[in-house]
Amino acid sequence: MRGEPAGKYDFEVGMYRPPSEGGSHSLLLRFTRNCPWNKCTFCAMYKHEKFSMRSVAEIKTDIDAIAALIQDMQSLSWKLGHAGQIDRDVIVAMIEQVPELNTSHGFGMVLNWLSSGGKTAFLQDGNSLMMATDKLVEVLTYLRSTFSSLERCTTYARSKTLSRKPRADLTAIREAGLDRLHVGLETGDDALLKKIKKGVTGKEHIEGGKKALAAGFQLSEYWMPGLGGREDWENHARNTALVLNQINPHYIRSRPFFPYPGTPIHDAHQQGTLTLLSPGETLKELRLMIETLDVSSKVCFDHAGNCWVNRNGGLLFTQSYEGYQFPEEKPRVLDLIDAGIKAQEGRTQKGRFRVVP
Ligand code: SF4
């Protein structure tokens, strides 16, 4: 995604990043393009795009372009008598000098990042650990030395890649400045993992997660309530919790399932081989999963899809990126789920059943 090419300030920005990286206004840097696996039946993210690596030179050129953009805005600020501050007047003057910036996706992203203190970066796209370790270490080192304000760098990673990567490589990548990995677990149930073509087993999820933690990464694991439908909900809930118990990641993030048109799982739903759970049924599945969970993770509902409601029609869970600290807040979450189930029953009885995707 480029918008209009902005000359020496031109750099690539991918489509996706986790919500927590949007909330912290992370700098988005494209290390690879799209997803090297691209077979998960529920996923619409990179469906029609081909995976490709980017070279070290390309990524460094992007980092240089962003650094030049910031430096030139600061110089302009001094010229205008704004003491290096990048404020509205400086931004307007910059766009007057380089009109293409006005339609550049990357320009707004860099401004947001700077206004939030320039603290976090997210390396796009679907699995940056596909890069050869020495190349990834080289660009991470370059990134950290270019932007000294960075406090946290994160990226997406697949469990399969983590489980195959030598431990020493993971440690080298961690030490070069990659802090947090966002991993799509989806489910811990082997039969369902096969059905959704995740390309990984529960055992490999555990191996990958444990290796990431041993190398010193912060680990976010994402799971999908509702993914198994009525056919598989119980195994999905129980086995997801059991796999997460073995990993004990820093974060467990809920991403409720929705069958996006154009995905194979949407077709399965249309053909009647997958029956979607109602909001109340998803809460019962969630209850079983949370009951079985025995972790010291933060359990998060930090996505708009977690839109179960309480009896007042408000959101059942906080959508904070830090979520609920387990085990301390497990009873609270279970109470909230019970209250949500009651609220759903009340709505159904009153004929005010609300379909929540
Ligand atoms: S690995 Fe992730 S990005 Fe790739 S197809 Fe699966 S869910 Fe989508």
Give a verbal description of the structure.
- By secondary structure, the protein is an alpha/beta fold.
- 44% of the residues lie in helices and 11% in strands.
- It has helices at residues 19-23, 56-79, 88-97, 105-115, 133-146, 159-164, 167-175, 190-195, 202-214, 229-247, 264-270, 279-292, 330-349; strands at 27-30, 32-33, 52-53, 120-124, 152-157, 180-186, 218-223, 251-254, 298-300, 324-325.
- The strands form two sheets. Strands 1-4-5-6-7-8-9-10 form an eight-stranded mixed β-sheet. A two-stranded antiparallel sheet has the order 2-3.
- Helix 2 (56-79) crosses helix 3 (88-97), helix 2 runs parallel beside helix 5 and helix 5 (133-146) runs parallel beside helix 7.
- It is globular, with a radius of gyration of 22 Å.
- The two termini are 28 Å apart.
- Residues 351-357 have low confidence and may be disordered.
- The structure holds iron/sulfur cluster (SF4).
- Iron/sulfur cluster binds at residues 35, 37-40, 43, 45-46, 126, 158, 184.
Backbone structural class? alpha/beta
Name the helicity range.
40-55%
Cofactors, ions, other ligands: iron/sulfur cluster
Work out the radius of gyration.
22 Å
Shape: globular
Q: Which sequence of strands runs across the widest sheet?
A: 1-4-5-6-7-8-9-10
- Relative strand content: 5-15%
The low-confidence parts are 351-357
Largest sheet: 8 strands, mixed
The number of helical segments is 13
Short description:
By secondary structure, the chain is of the alpha/beta class.
Which SSEs are present, and which pair or pack?
Blueprint: H1 19-23, E1 27-30, E2 32-33, E3 52-53, H2 56-79, H3 88-97, H4 105-115, E4 120-124, H5 133-146, E5 152-157, H6 159-164, H7 167-175, E6 180-186, H8 190-195, H9 202-214, E7 218-223, H10 229-247, E8 251-254, H11 264-270, H12 279-292, E9 298-300, E10 324-325, H13 330-349
Parallel strand pairs: 1-4, 4-5, 5-6, 6-7, 7-8, 8-9
Antiparallel strand pairs: 2-3, 9-10
Helix pairs in contact: 2-3, 2-5, 5-7, 9-10, 10-12, 12-13
